[in-house]
Amino acid sequence: MGKIAVLDQQTIDKIAAGEVVERPASVVKELVENAVDAGASQVTVEIRDGGVGMIRITDNGSGMEKDDIPLAFLRHSTSKIRSAEDLQGVRSLGFRGEALSSISAVAMVELITKTREQTMGSRCVIEGGVQKSLEEIGAPDGTTFIVRNLFYNTPARKKFLKSDMAEAGAVYEMMTHLALSHPEISFRVIVGGQMKLQTPGNGKLEDVIYHVYGRDVALRLIEVDRAEGPLRIRGFIGKPELSRGNRNYENYFVNGRFVRSKIVAKGIEDGYKTFMMQHRYPFVCLDLQVDGRLLDVNVHPSKMEIRFSNQNLVYDLLQRTVKDTLSGKELIPEVKFAEEPKRQESAARPWTPESQKKEERKVPLEKMWKTPEPVKEPVTPQEKNLEYFMAQMRKRVEERHMVQEENGYGASVQESPAPKMPVPETPVWEKTVSPEPAPVKTAPEQMTLFDGKMLSKEAAVRHEIIGQVFDTYWLVQYADKLYIIDQHAAHEKVLYERLMKNLKERAFQQQILSPPIILNLSMQEEELFLRYRSCFAEMGFEIEEFGDRAYAVRAVPADLPGMAQNEILMEFLDSLSDITGNVSSESLMDRVATMSCKAAVKGNHRMSAAEAKALIDELLTLENPYNCPHGRPTIISMTKYELEKKFKRIV
């Protein structure tokens, strides 16, 4: 008897489901993507028990015809494509036709749907891949999926799930990606009966970023919109101060699809390279629009991986776009002595599994998902008025102090009127309110590109160099700010920009080495050198053969005397080994220029005032003077307002 047998359909479906449905977040992803493809403008996702107990997804999309429902749950049935040729230009999020079949094979599924043309909707129940019922029912336009008892018939997969809170966190993270990639759709996420995310659906990406990441991130965004050839990049990138220790804040989409791509990540991170410290990662939210014929989205069942037909084109545009965008902004970080008290805004505090755990410590485990509302004592109108009045009086006193400090202690200042409120039984409080409003002094904000920039030609003649501290930092006063400049980072940046300019204009000068440096290379190192030999020559290096795998370096760029060392040259050659594919001469120049730190003046070195002035004047003329080639800031600022607060001149 033969050993090979054909598996039954239920076993086949369960095996196939394992490729698509890994956890509750996979179910939510597939069903919400179907809702987006159906043209929904509102999508609500509700989960309980981390999504294992119940997932309900409701949308107001086009709905499904009753005759199409049984077909929709069959494997490889789809309305998105008709032939293999359609895969070359597919723009929908889903297209494989495996989602509903895979989900229904490992869960109890209930579908309620209705098209706009129908008067009655349809309800279908499927358990373990077997249809139990299909009937007409009254329903609103759109589709509702209810998925219960996920993996009830595949316990081996269920036991590998994480805690309910971890699974809920994965659902939340996946929904933030969909919300960021489709700001025109209003998404709601409800976890255990509590609203965790709600986006307006007004088409404004910055509003979605605010609701997901909070105010601090939303205030530090730079808009991006650039098109070249078949590619277009739109969205927002964060200022370098928004850096994180991992890539969790890197959100990039290809034709509205959230993906993970090494080439896209590298392009973004290399664009930030001279603006951010090493091993730090930026905040970005970018959508890359690409002709569908130039990419392959049919790589993996989860559709998280894609392939570009021209990776160098994508990398180059991303790297240049990010770098050029950052180069045009004033990015001087402002130092504050203490954090200002923040209002408790739910939108400014994005939900995370960790924050949920803190909330749950306050309630018993059995009430984890149904936290009762706290019972409040009744408040009398008099108590409410008094409480409101005292809060307003404290606010007015603080405002009066700020205005008095601005105008001098002897100046008479009128008070601002208190907001309208219910009149109490004894209206004596109204007598303390002055009718005329007064201006309120607010803390100054960081200068923008269109304000008076310290790093500009106009400001260069008005700033004042005060002196040097710790033989490393130079103090400069301009307007109402104190600027602190790191002489080592500043010199690194000046050398870097000077070299890059000379290399691009082919205006470099050579420093002749006598005797020359002899490099003894291994076979792999020699292969690397020969691959980029012409680029070395373009940058001002003069290198010739000197025997068996030995090369003599007879000249280096004059702006990089630090390169005239055997160890530094070998270190630079080793750094080229991680480059895949072809590399432009400009990218190679950038790597050479980062070695400028070897020739820069170090910290703890006393410079003369004339040397410092020449260095600072040249720094201020650069397009991007804010960070050294390694990402460290060259200059920080401190406002007069912060200093006066510290000395209690402003209360």
Report on the structure:
- About 12% of the residues have low confidence.
- This protein is globular.
- Helix 1 packs across helix 4, helix 6 runs antiparallel to helix 7 and helix 9 packs parallel to helix 10.
- An eight-stranded mixed sheet has the order 5-4-3-6-2-1-7-8, covered by helices on one side. The protein has a five-stranded mixed sheet with strand order 9-10-13-11-12, sandwiched between helices.
- The chain has four domains: 190 residues, Heat Shock Protein 90 (2-Layer Sandwich), CATH 3.30.565; 123 residues, Ribosomal Protein S5, domain 2; 59 residues, no CATH class; 205 residues, 2-Layer Sandwich (formyl-coa transferase, domain 3), CATH 3.30.1540.20.
- The protein has 20 helices and 22 strands.
- The protein has 651 residues and is of the alpha+beta class.
